[in-house]
Amino acid sequence: MRVLVATDAWHPQVNGVVHTLGEVARAAPALGASIAFLTPEGMRSLPLPTYPGMRLALARPNTIARRIVDLRPAAIHIATEGPIGYLVRRYCLTNRLAFTTSFHTRFPDYVSARTPIPERWTWAALRWFHGAAGGVMAATPGLEAELASRGFNNVMAWPRGVDAALFRPRPGADLGLSRPVFLTVARLAVEKNIEAFLALDLPGTKVVVGDGPARADLAHRFPDAVFLGARRGEDLASAYAAADVFVFPSRTDTYGLVLLEALASGVPVAAFPVAGPRDVLAGAPVAALDADLRAACLKALTLSREQCRAFALGKTWEASARSFLANVRRVAVGAAVAREMGEAIA
Fold it and tell me: Which terminus of the chain has fewer Cβ atoms in its 10 Å neighbourhood, N or C?
């Protein structure tokens, strides 16, 4: 089964959407499927002033149509609500092709943080975009319930995973900093709420891994924190393993893959008791969730690193890919059956 995934988020961007799609594509062949991508690569683009380093693809409808025809996919999935996603959606509707979508980002929260646009307007636009799909995939039960409550009538579950071979405990891992080490890993932007972590009065050292438009300002305002910049692969995994607590200050993330990466590394989590962490951690004794983030950080120091690792081992990318493929297959098969019935009646 060949699945075409259309996405405006792609390399060199570093975010949960790109990472998730890449991991699922790597796991798909062992499950009898292949995933092809329709991305901004090779298309004209414009820079996004509020997201330095990120660009918005300027795709032509005929280019999109030609690529879909050439790939001849058995199923189509639209991962993002950008120009590529919109044009693929339009092509599918025009040609009566079934497709699925996925809800990765809380755009209503992000847009309202930067502009005077009311959240209800953005939610209305998202309902319009996803409402035409055979199914919209959500990463957690909490997000499924929220989307349903906001009028999304076609929600499907698509859990996430972690590479537990890369992200693992590494005895002796040390950043050479005063302990305990409180670590956060994120894109440094206003919606990630990094300031809430850096403003805490904590023992030891606060460490930030990541880059983004807010980095210079945060580094200036919080000179006692250590900013390591963006890290990937073994360098990122080593940073996790050297931490004593992983701090997740975001209040808006729909999932937070970094939570699983930290837990797989044997590092307990401290976070606010909001939807993302609550859903991902599901009440397991691997995190301290508290409206007082400082209290959560200190409590997390007492949690078992062994239990953190054991929890993460139950979250695999193979299981995530299996769920994704089951969703797209169900929608594609359902559309094919409906089409055959319609032709038989005619």
Answer: C
Which tokens go with 345? 């009646």
What gap in Å lies between CA 217 and CA 210, rounded to an integer?
14
Task: Compute the average pLDDT of residues 227-246.
Answer: 97
pTM of the model: 0.88
Question: DSSP code of 178?
Answer: P
How confident is residue 12, by pLDDT bands cut at 50, 70 and 90?
Answer: confident
Residues 6+ apart with CB under 8 A from 287: 259, 268, 269, 270, 271, 277, 281, 300, 303
Characterise 229 by phi-psi region: left (phi > 0), alpha (psi -120 to 50), beta (else): left
- Which tens digit of pLDDT belongs to each residue from 285-307? 999 999 999 999 999 999 999 99
Quote the DSSP letter at residue 65. H
CATH architecture of 181-312: 3-Layer(aba) Sandwich (3.40)
Closest by Cα among 34, 29, 122, 31 to 81: 122
User: Quick one: pLDDT at residue 53?
Assistant: 47
* Residue 154 · residue 126 · CB < 8 Å: no
The CATH code of the domain at 2-161+317-345 is 3.40.50.2000
In a 13 Å sphere around the CA of 162, the CA atoms on its Cβ side amount to 27
Instruction: Tell me the torsion sign for CA atoms 173, 174, 179, 181.
Output: negative
Strands ordered across the beta sheet of 155-157? 34-38, 2-6, 75-78, 100-102, 135-138, 155-157
1 closest CA partner among 338, 342, 322: 322
